[in-house]
Structure formats: C-alpha cells, structure tokens
Design a protein that fits this description.
By secondary structure, the chain is mainly alpha-helical. The chain has a single domain, classed as Transferase(Phosphotransferase) domain 1 (Transferase(Phosphotransferase), domain 1), CATH 1.10.510. It contains 13 helices and 8 strands. The chain has a two-stranded antiparallel ribbon with strand order 1-2. Strands 3-6 form a two-stranded antiparallel ribbon. Strands 4-5 form a two-stranded antiparallel ribbon. This is Calcium/calmodulin-dependent protein kinase IGa. Keywords: ATP-binding, Kinase, Nucleotide-binding, Serine/threonine-protein kinase, Transferase.
Length: 353
C-alpha cells in the first residue's frame, strides 16, 4: 500500500509550499515543510498603503497556476482560503505560496464525497453532501477573489441555516458602494468561478485565459481604503470569535452527531472544523486604517454613516446582483443544510461607511 504522504513528495511547483522531509512515530507524522517567511495575504494587503484590482489579479493568477498544477497531478486541495495563501519572503514582489494540504486528496474516478472544508469557502455541492470534483477548488478561488476586491465575504447571515442556504443557491451580490469602482471583467470572472452548477463553473485552465487574469482588464483604481476597512473589521475579529468558540464548537458538533445517530442509521458527514487563536498581529490590524465610526452594526463592527447597501447597476443598465431567482431549496436540501451547521461560520456583514 502506498504511503499516505507519497503524493505530497511529488508536488514541485514554485507557488506550492513543498514537503522537505517527515518523521514518523507510532502515533504521529512530523512534517518538515518548506520555509516561507513573508506572512499572510491579508497582512500584506493591509501593509501596502496602495492596493488595486491589478494587485488582486496577480495574486489570483499565481493561485490559479498552483491549483492548476495540483489538478493536473490529480490532487484537490479542498481547503483554499486566504489564511492558506502565504508570501514566500518579505520582498515587495514576493511570490504567493499555497499551503496547508491537511484536507487535500488524490482524485479517484474523478469524484469525492467527504464533506470537508472551511465554512464560507465550501462549494454548494459539498454543503449538499453530493459527490463533487476538483471544481470545488475553483469555487473557493472565486470566494477569495470576491473578498480581495471588497474586504468582506460574499455570503453573510446571522443564522447559519440561512447562510448555508444562500451558498447552496449561489445567492450573492455586488453591493454599492463597495463594488462601484470594480470593473465588469472582475465581476464576470467571479460569476464564472462562483457558478452554482459545477459542470458550468470555470476550471483553472479557463480561468487562466480570462481577460481579468491573462489580459489588461483589471483596472488600476486604488481601492485600499475601502478594502482595508472591511478586512480589519470582518477578518481580524473572526479569529477572536473562532478562538472564543473553540470549546463550544466541539460540544455542538458532538451534540449534532449524537442527535442524528439517534434519529437516523445513516452516518453524518460534517465539515472540517478549524479554530484559530488571536495574536498581537490581529490586535494591531485594527489600528492600520483610519476613520471615525458611528456605532456598531449587528455583528459588533464599527460602522460609518453613509449610503445603505444596495445592488449597483452596470453601465448597460442591467443589475449586477447575482442570485438564482426561483431556485429554492427542496425539503431534502433544507434537511441537509440543517445537518451541516457549524458554529465556526462567523456571520459577516459589510460595514456601512
């Protein structure tokens, strides 16, 4: 039988963190990973001072190249998210490195079925607990792209059942004023990556040919202030919430599994749960952007008195809100969403300026 880490030693790509060596005990594997010292993606953005669509496009292009390589080698990452995108070193033009292959899997017959990932980044077919393919990684890249261009997640709800229902319907929007200065090619790229139907969703090869990635369609307008404000409010605090809720998450998941086992003979598939502790860097993130706040939003975020969220219109007059009207969940899908709940999915809302 092949060693469970054998496929990892085959990974050799300039944008993928490599496995240098490993040691095995009776109960554990100890992995020696390639050293990357440039820090996390969000920290670098917050430190830049100037940030444009072109910066986001260059990041996503490197991620696509890395994931395309993995897919060519029949490896699906299954947990792509901003925290797993690191800079190789501290140089200003450092390359991006895709890390953390704890949930990755080699493709068998082209499909997988284990429900795993990080809430907020998982594809609709995973939440529906259906067999899925490498297209789940492309959905996650679409979610990351959305966040890089506005600073908040595409799906936000106070209630987890509604949150997962929105993901399963691919119900998201490009809100004004946060998306007013974002180009139409960027929005088109996101629509193709976050396509509900995995058979219609862009694969990495198609994504790499899109004008926003391969051409000059990404605009150079500075969006640093808006993106920075949203990132610091939504993502720095999410780490504190995850750390605070770590014990209750485990307890909650155990209760769900117990209640399901008592009512049904079928095993319950649950998403991979990840709790992160806050650091001094997270606290320092709150001081990097400036602006007077006018109270708190429903999530406890400082808000600025400005226009209410709405869906912006494209130059042609058509709305740029994206959803699947009339595509309501079936009773069976609703039950699947209810069974998939997790307290790690922090309800996000873009803060009003």
């Amino acid at each position: 039988m092949p060693h469970p880490l054998s496929y990892y030693f085959r990974i050799k790509h300039e944008n993928v963190v490599g496995l240098e060596d490993f040691y095995e005990s009776r109960t554990h594997y100890y992995l020696v990973m390639q050293l990357v010292s440039g820090g996390e993606l969000f920290d670098r953005i917050l430190d830049k001072g100037v940030y444009t669509e072109r910066d986001a496009s260059m990041v996503i292009k490197q991620v696509l190249q890395a994931v395309s390589y993995l897919h060519e080698n029949s490896i699906v990452h299954r947990d792509l998210k901003p925290e797993n995108l690191l800079y190789y070193n501290t140089d200003e033009n450092s390359k991006i490195m895709v890390s953390d292959f704890g949930l990755s899997k080699t493709l068998e017959h082209g499909v997988m079925s284990t429900a795993c990932g990080t809430p907020g980044y998982v594809a609709p077919e995973v939440l529906a607990q259906k067999p899925y393919s490498k297209a789940v990684d492309c959905w996650s890249i679409g979610v990351i792209t959305y966040i890089l261009l506005c600073g908040y997640p595409p799906f936000f709800e106070d209630n987890e059942t509604r949150l997962f229902s929105k993901i399963m319907r691919a119900e998201y929007a490009f809100h004004s004023p946060f998306w007013d200065n974002i180009s139409e090619p960027a929005k088109d790229f996101i629509r193709n990556m976050m396509e509900k139907n995995p058979k219609k969703r862009f694969l990495t090869e198609q994504a790499l040919r899109h004008p926003w990635i391969a051409g000059n369609a990404a605009n150079g307008i500075d969006i640093y202030q808006s993106v920075c404000e949203q990132m610091e409010r939504n993502f720095a605090k999410s780490k504190w919430k995850q750390a605070f809720n770590a014990a209750s998450v485990v307890h909650h998941m155990k209760k769900l599994q117990l209640s399901h086992s008592e009512s049904s003979p079928l095993p319950l598939s649950m998403p991979h749960i990840l709790a992160q502790s806050s650091t001094q860097n997270d606290i320092e993130m709150l001081g990097r952007c400036h602006g007077e706040a006018d109270g708190l939003d429903p999530n406890g975020n400082p808000i600025h008195a400005a226009s209410l969220l709405s869906c912006s219109n494209s130059e042609s007059g058509g709305g740029v809100c994206h959803s699947e009207p009339g595509n309501t969940l079936t009773d069976d899908e609703k039950r699947q969403v209810t069974n998939f709940q997790s307290e790690t999915a922090t309800p996000f809302r873009p803060s009003k300026r």
